[in-house]
Design goal:
By secondary structure, this protein is of the alpha+beta class. Helix content is 30%, strand content 21%.
Length: 477
């Protein structure tokens, strides 16, 4: 199978959970457990897991007979080495923050790992950890960035930096009759138009991570468009420590000013869902009622702008930071600029390209900007792994956090173990705090890892994070 992607990978470390690595991670590695598209936990490298009655630990049983690509058998020592890597602030990379709940772990035997937590921990938070941990062979941890060390359905055959990556089937793979195809070849394209043209000409069977607008066009031409349960959510990020956004009424007005339907339609060709909260439908905190409650309402926005008590000059004293490299971000920023102008509030767009924008966003050097957030389909407090939602060391809002009620709401979610009514109440409270504080205002979900494929392919597996899972894909007879 020949797959087109739009960027080269960073490295082969599964803890480098960057979108450019999404085509490879779940083909070179397996997780301890997996989620169905609906968020149900199912076995993978772990065949069983038992959560202690006091919610202070989970005991994990490893599958028998699983081998790494090197031929070595998976044991609890590999899990221990993987967990040790994940707890290192530098080596743990994107998994490090998820490990914050872990106290330590033990390995009673070769097939058992017991993970102990710092405090009583909700079931779903434990399961998210098990799903996010992808075992690395202990002997390969030091070289994993350049040499894959997983148990996945495919092995690395070759890589030409900036050009292509070839994977071949793992002949010792533990899942019966998988992978279906003997080879997956990734070709790196400089832009979406070139990749789409190669698909149409028959040079590719699939484009992974392409643009929504191209996907809609190709779908109309008979190609398959596969959307997973793990989208990103576009968020209007606000620096609430700077005027005029230090005024609560002024911030809250944007809940009604943002034309979410228009943003989704124009920015993302309608591929996604309108949302007023930072959750995908698979999240246990998802609540569709907020979308209707905070629907586009310029009159309500005008009312709140008036209630803010700010002068016209004060309300116009800011620029909207725009990621000029991304066409969707530019378009939706223009929509907001026009909506403000309709209310006689005139602002400028501060358009920055590439690294200049990324540096400004990650350092909080802005008053407002759009940016996608992830982990929105899992345990609700995972949203705090995103910079604008961090409860500590927040690069935008700084320390101490200016919204202690938000920090407390996240902590309540993390410490409410049951019954179900209490858990739901904790989620509802967090949602209410999010819209009242309004330091981040979601507009819509949008596709990450979008698949556009030839009608000749079948057998797609939907991953909870929208990573590409190639082991079940084959050609129709």
């Amino acid at each position: 199978m020949h797959v087109g992607v739009l960027a080269d990978m960073t490295n082969f470390d599964p803890m480098q959970f960057s979108t450019v690595n999404f085509p490879l991670i779940k083909n070179l590695y397996d997780s301890l457990i997996e989620y169905t598209p609906e968020g149900e936990a199912i076995p993978s490298l772990a065949t069983d897991w038992t959560i202690a009655e006091d919610h202070m630990s989970v005991s994990v049983t490893l599958r028998e007979g699983v081998k790494f690509h090197s031929g070595a058998v998976l044991t609890s020592a590999d899990i221990a080495a993987t967990l040790a890597k994940a707890t290192d602030p530098k080596k743990g990379k994107n998994v490090y923050s998820t490990m914050a709940i872990v106290k330590d772990w033990t390995t009673p035997d070769d097939k058992t790992v017991v993970i102990n937590f710092k405090a009583a921990t909700p079931d779903r938070q434990m399961l998210d950890l098990l799903q996010f941990v992808m075992p690395i062979e202990a002997a390969g941890i030091e070289t994993v960035e350049t040499v894959p060390a997983g148990t996945g359905a495919y092995k690395l055959d070759s890589r030409a930096v900036g050009q292509n990556i070839v994977l071949t089937a793992n002949e010792d793979y533990w899942r019966e009759n998988e992978p279906i195809l003997g080879e997956v070849r990734f070709t790196i394209f400089s832009d979406d138009a070139s990749a789409s043209a190669a698909l149409e000409s028959g040079g590719l069977e699939m484009v992974y991570g392409g643009a929504a607008r191209s996907a809609v066009r190709l779908q109309d031409a008979g190609y398959q468009v596969i959307r997973g349960p793990g989208p990103l959510v576009q968020v209007f990020r606000i620096n609430a420590t700077k005027a005029p956004f230090d005024n609560a009424k002024f911030r809250q007005a944007f809940n009604y000013l943002l034309d979410r339907e228009g943003i989704l339609r124009v920015g993302y060709a309608g591929l996604g869902e309108v949302v007023a909260l930072p959750w995908a439908p698979a999240s246990p905190a998802f609540d569709a009622s907020y979308t209707e409650k905070y629907a586009f309402n310029p009159d309500k926005a005008r009312e709140l702008f008036t209630e803010s008590g700010l002068s016209k000059a004060e309300m116009e004293d800011w620029k909207l930071l725009v990621y000029g490299t991304d066409a969707a971000s530019t378009t939706i920023s223009q929509i907001v600029q026009a909506a403000l102008a309709d209310l006689d509030i005139n602002i400028e767009l501060d358009v920055r390209e590439g690294s200049e924008y990324v540096e400004a966003q990650l350092s909080g050097d802005y008053k407002a900007t759009f940016g996608g957030v992830g982990n929105v389909q899992k345990f609700p407090s995972r949203v705090s792994t995103n910079s604008i939602y961090r409860t500590a060391n927040n690069p935008v809002l700084k320390d101490p956090h200016p919204f202690p009620e938000y920090v407390a709401a996240i902590e309540r979610v993390n410490t409410t173990l049951g019954p179900d009514e209490a858990v739901k109440a904790a989620y509802d409270h967090l949602n209410q705090v999010l819209v009242e504080s309004s330091f981040a205002i979601p507009t819509n979900s949008y596709e990450i890892g979008l698949i556009v494929a030839s009608p000749k392919l079948s057998g797609f597996t939907l991953d909870i994070d929208n990573l590409l899972v190639a082991r079940t894909i084959g050609f129709k007879e």
